[in-house]
Write a structure and sequence with these properties.
heterodimer; A: 268 residues; B: 277 residues; mainly alpha; 13 helices; globular
Chain lengths: 268, 277
């Protein structure tokens, strides 16, 4: 990428961050609100473990680590590309034309223009929760495990990001798709917080394997804690999340391109 | 801003019926959005019920007083109820306050709270036959749902769902009315989204919490009146007497919240600045 292109993105991003942080009190309230969404995810798991000692064959420490990894990954994806779901409005109003005529990637522009700076609150909380859950589990302190602990949320964020983009792309074909994408994005967060053993076969095949959500937290957690998969998957799968993430991002990119090619402006 | 000088010539019930019918028809035209919402709520029904099943699989026959079929009905009817009470709604009123458009609502010779409630009840009527039925039917296809043993429970649930819709409307109205002072209702809306889901019985039945805390939430906060109470009435958690008592709690919140809405509306109108242009 040429330097001038990078500078253009930096300019777009900087303008957004500056404008969003102008009203200090509003911005602080938004950051706290975003943080609370992360708190509630973890608190919900605590409440569920009040009424049961195990969930799908796993104890609290293990599920807590899955919840932390999933929450951290989701928060990062939500910060970077979560607002891509606004694509629906851009397509309906024809605003997307303005992005398409610029000599920059439309998707990168959308991400830069709609970056939700307030969501740093949730990211910060997610990182802290990963550290707390790893210490509580405890994850053995070996270089390989530590590396896996750092890489997993990043790979998970790429998977969630790919799902955000791919589901938003539906708007190119179906403008009135409403909140249907939420089933896979926010639903994906719900799904990945818990071990995949609790879901029925159909749901597991669809969410865990076809979309790749099992690689966000479940398989890495098994590897981090030296647990064998009750469903019989080989142990090395815990290390394959980055590969799955790259595949997911590629698939999302191809869907996006197909969508842009399909786009017909409202012409207004 | 003068408040409703013509109010003495009280608008007839026909005006409110017409508003309710308009609310019904308005939402009946957004069919695709309705289908999208039903699909989404159904997906979340599967996700939520999987967690409940896992809790039961861990050994207990009942959890916090709910059997497996009761929890199934709790989750699936809950996914339908979200659409009836409209737990999460766009901040339309707040946006009208910000832009100043709200002035056209205030010029009508009809109370702004009642007119919006009438339209919202019409909307809820349409949701009851679409957004409620969809997830419940999907759940019934896959799982064994609890059906009430007492016939009167159906009537009690219908009343409870109606009261829940009014409480939820009132809470959303208050959230939006914050825009009279803040010009933006995003902060209060975030608070509402968090508390209604977490403390209202949507993410888990509030009885998963310690008993005294759960009972305190149900009586002292409006949140469980929206989701938790109607569902407890439906799955007959407790005697008919308790069901009636729960309806009484909801009725108390309906009166409190609507009074609060009127008070806030009156104060807000005095604060209202109509943006020029």
């Amino acid at each position: 990428m040429a330097d001038s292109t990078l500078a253009a993105y930096r300019y777009l991003l900087g303008a957004q961050v500056r404008s969003q942080s102008q009203y200090r009190a509003s911005f602080a309230a938004d950051v706290v609100g975003s943080l609370m969404f992360g708190v509630i995810d973890v608190a919900s798991v605590l409440v569920v473990f009040r009424v049961t000692p195990t969930l799908g064959g796993f104890g609290f420490a293990e599920v807590f680590l899955m919840t932390a990894l999933a929450g951290c990954a989701f928060a990062m994806a939500d910060l970077a590309v979560g607002n891509v779901e606004r694509l629906r409005q851009y397509v309906r109003s024809g605003l997307l034309d303005a992005l398409l005529v610029r000599p920059l990637s439309a998707l990168a522009q959308l991400a830069a223009m709609d970056v939700a700076t307030r969501r740093v609150g949730r990211v910060a909380f997610g990182v802290i929760m990963v550290a707390v859950a790893a210490a509580h589990a405890p994850v053995p302190l070996t270089p390989a495990r530590l590396a896996l602990l750092v890489v997993t949320p990043v790979a998970g964020a790429m998977i969630f990001g790919a799902v955000f983009v791919a589901t938003a792309t539906v708007a190119f074909w179906w403008v009135e798709s409403g909140e249907v994408a939420n089933g896979l994005t926010y639903g994906g967060l719900n799904f990945t917080q818990y071990p995949i053993t609790i879901y029925g076969t159909l749901f597991r095949r669809l969410f865990a394997y076809a979309v790749g959500f099992a690689f966000v937290a479940y398989y890495p957690t098994l590897t981090l804690l030296d647990r064998a998969d009750p469903l019989g998957a080989p142990a090395f799968l815990g290390y394959t999340s980055p590969a799955v993430a790259i595949a997911a991002v590629t698939a999302a990119g191809l869907t996006w391109r197909a969508g842009v090619r399909h786009y017909r402006s409202t012409g207004s | 801003m003068q408040s409703h000088p013509i109010e003495s010539s009280a608008p007839s019930g026909r005006a409110y019926l017409a508003l309710a019918a308009a609310g019904f028809k308005r939402y009946a035209t957004y069919r695709e959005a309705m289908v999208a919402a039903v699909v989404t709520n159904t997906v979340f029904g599967f996700l939520r019920f999987a967690v409940m099943l896992a809790v039961l699989d861990a050994g207990a026959r009942t959890v916090a007083g709910y059997s497996e079929p009761q929890l199934a009905t709790f989750v699936w009817a809950g996914q339908g109820l979200i659409g009836v009470v409209l737990l999460w709604a766009p901040l339309d009123l707040a946006e009208r306050i910000r832009s100043g458009d709200v002035v056209t609502d205030l010029l009508r010779p009809i109370d702004p709270v009642w007119q919006m409630l009438a339209a919202d009840l019409g909307r809820a009527g349409y949701a009851a036959v679409t957004r409620f039925v969809g997830p419940v039917a999907a759940g019934a296809l896959v799982f064994e749902l609890y059906t009430p043993r007492r016939l009167v429970t159906y009537a009690l649930f219908a009343c409870s769902a109606l009261l829940a819709t009014i409480v939820c409307f009132g809470c959303r109205y208050l959230v939006n009315a914050a825009a009279y002072w803040l010009l933006d209702a995003r902060g209060p809306n975030t608070f509402w989204t968090l508390t209604s889901g977490f403390l209202g019985g949507l993410y888990f039945p509030v009885w998963f919490l310690p008993d005294t805390l759960a009972a305190g939430l149900i009586v002292l906060t409006p949140f469980p009146s929206v989701i938790q109470i109607p569902l407890d009435v439906l799955v007959e958690r407790g005697s008919p007497g308790l069901q009636l008592a729960l309806l009484g709690v909801q009725a108390g919140w309906v009166v409190t919240i609507l009074a609060l809405c009127h008070w806030v509306q009156a104060r807000g109108e005095r604060k209202l600045v109509i943006q020029g242009g």
